[in-house]
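Appendix B, record 7
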Amino acid sequence: MKYRITFFLITFFISLTLIVQGQINVIKLERSKLPKGIHVQGEIGNAIRYTDKLGDNIVITTETGQFPSKKENEEDDKDAELFAYHFLSEADTIKQTWKVYDFIKACPFDIEANFVKNTFQVTDLNNDGIAEVWIMYKTACHSDVSSSDMKIIMYQGTQKFAMRGRNKVKISDTQFEGGEYTFDKLFTDGPVVFSDFAKKLWDKNIM
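Structure tokens (predicted):
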């Protein structure tokens, strides 16, 4: 009897945790299996599909890597870009509802425009049936050990939430640089569960 009660409590708390986290069922897509009408720039890092109250959703993230600068600058200057796309699929129609675009242009040094590994995810933290899509990335052009610009962008429907700052780097045995961030108004005024999740994601990837 005691074993059964213990097992029930463990099962209950596991179920409760899953409800609180509000995870959305996500299906990974291969590039060759993307629906017709979807066009993206760069190399695909993530391509997923999920269903929520808004309908049949597709999200894709891409990076270009570095390439010769398009601007008329020095020969060694480089550009790098990254993108995130959201599409809604309705019958035979594909509609793009939002797009994230960021970049570094004309960089003569080490260039960075990359999504942070293992941070892309889809949640329903406030359990309203509308998914939140989370992306996190860094951009930089530097020739020394210094911090990079870092951002967390979250979309719920067409609402964009942003957290902007810099990652943290060790510049000497006792000194660090960066780590600060700011929330935009939507994060500040929105559900606490959103900003709490963003802070945890930031702290986990700050170095």
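Remarks on this record: The chain is about 20% helix and 50% strand. The longest helix spans residues 2-21.
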